[in-house]
Amino acid sequence: MQEHPKPKHYKELLVWQKGMALAKLVYRLTVRFPREEKFGLTSQIRRAAVSVPSNIAEGQARQSTKEFLQFLSHAEGSLAELETQVLLSVELGFVWPDDVKEILATIDELQKMLVGLKRKLEEVSPLATRHSPLSSRAEYAR
User: What residue spans of 92-129 are helical by DSSP H?
Assistant: First the structure.
């Protein structure tokens, strides 16, 4: 099996590139939202979309695998938040189901990519995800 070199920069990560593409799709979609939603759902959905590649970038720039994994988890949470908000925008009639198909497919793809990346990072650095055998309470119980 061929070993892949660690990306030197987050921009080299396909998952970050897909996250950026998703954010652009969301911005294009939300332009159609009602004006009165500018500070409501429009703002929320855009923030969640921007949070995905932002967390990937920040995590990759951190010094430890443990921190990177934590930021990837934040990106996963933002994807779940974004999916919920996109579905709500359809239910509220701001957009049609066909309008969000590409966004929902990209969210699904990114969720799978993040799970795969996290699994790979955990294989490479298993200590980053292992808990100490002694809980913090056990130390104080002495």
Answer: 101-124
